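Long-time lurker. I teach an intro course on protein structure, and each term I like to show students one example going from raw sequence to a predicted 3D structure in token notation. This year I'd like something fresh instead of my usual example. Would anyone be willing to generate the tokens for the chain below so I can use it in lecture? Attribution to the forum is fine with me.
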Amino acid sequence: MKITWIHWQKIHRVIVLSAFSGSLLAGCGGGGDGPAIEARPQTLQFVGAAITLQLPGSATVVAKASSDLPIRYSSTTPTVCSVDGSTGVVSALATGVCSIAANQSGNTTFAQAPQAIQTIPVVVNPSQTIRFAAAPELSWLGTATVSAVANSGLAVSFNSATPSVCAVNEKSGLVTSLAAGTCTITADQAGDANYHAAPQAMQSLPVSVPSGITVPGAPAGVTATVANAINEITVSIGATDSGGSPITGYTVTSIPAGITATASTSPVSVTCPSTCSGYAFQVMASNRIGQGAPSAASDVLTNYNVVETFYEPDTQPRDSIFIGSFTFNSTTRTVLNLHGILSESMTGSQLAYPADNMVWLPLNNQLSAVSDAALGGVLVTTFLNSNTSTFSSMSGGDGWSPQAGVDIGGVYAGFPKAAQNPGNAYAMIFVNTDNPLAPLTPAQLNKLAYADCAPGGMMGAVCMTGTTVAGYGAVGTMSGYPVSQKITKKP
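-- Reply from a regular --
Happy to contribute to a lecture. Here you go:
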């Protein structure tokens, strides 16, 4: 076969390239005796017990490679959790399922490992606690703001455990001092769908009083009187030393104990169970510091008017009438200062009261008050003179009582010497000690009486009187007898 120059050049090139290629393969280990690359398989596995993360907590995951080569971690759920790529520390960010991937990329000996995944539930820790910030300083009658937070992030609410000392805004925590003492503020968090209620937290704020400020003094000028109903009284309070702080209220208590009333100003209305009779009352004033000493006990004193009428058949249209007033002490159930005027029906023209022109005697001397348990009250008598001498005591008797007058026939004291007649006169009323305004019963009405031994009431040696057969065994000396008595409370 004939080889041309062109063919020779092509053959030479092939030989050269073949030789060069063999040299390259030998140098790369593909040929000859150079070292070979290994690709051993490896596996990854998470180890340790399964974990659950609680917000806002953290935990550590551990994965092992069969090659013992280091692991790299990553989060495939970055909105739920994050992870430190080297340490495996997982931090919870939100509730849900946290997925952590473990990777090992291999080396000259081991091939890259298949990725391993560990899933971790992320839940809320249902327990929560509340912590107060440092306590602020609260001055007397001043304000301060407390602060507290729940580790759940939920809003807390505030309340005052000492409402007499301080008040607090439920949401803002603004505390207002009301009095001296220790102000205690509580903080609460009721929980929600994820959290239990938190244990209550407390913070105490001392409130001190400036020097020179004290509780009020004992009230002075205290008076008590029956109000519109028999079981209601009105307590009025006079001057009271405030102690340097404005008085905020009054407390009224009864003696004996059992009845209490309060008010911010005077007077104070007090309601008794059924009647206020038998009770005295004292008053204590309060300011921002506290309550002061009690006043002296005050009896319940009430002023009444009374009109008593005796029918006089022999002097019509004129009757014997007593118009008077008195003070009733409900505490001691006694009548004080009964006084008034008594008409002499044998005087004047034929005109009836109140258009009359009769002589009226001033009776200004209360000299007798006799309790009658059977009647439920007291018979009270006021006289013209400053003594009780009215009737003759020749046949015994006390010389003035209605029964003594009936027994002696109405004969004047000093009989038979007209010049020795003291000219006395009296009117006797009845007061129900449970309720002076109560209408009289027939038995009570029958014990009313009057006597008039003054000149306008004399018939020779006999004084003009008014009594009943039921009460004293006879009507009056001119057949007069009681028909009514009306007591009204003075305005």
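Some talking points for your students: The CA atoms of residues 249 and 265 lie 6 Å apart. The chain has four domains: 44-123, 130-207, 223-299, 302-489.
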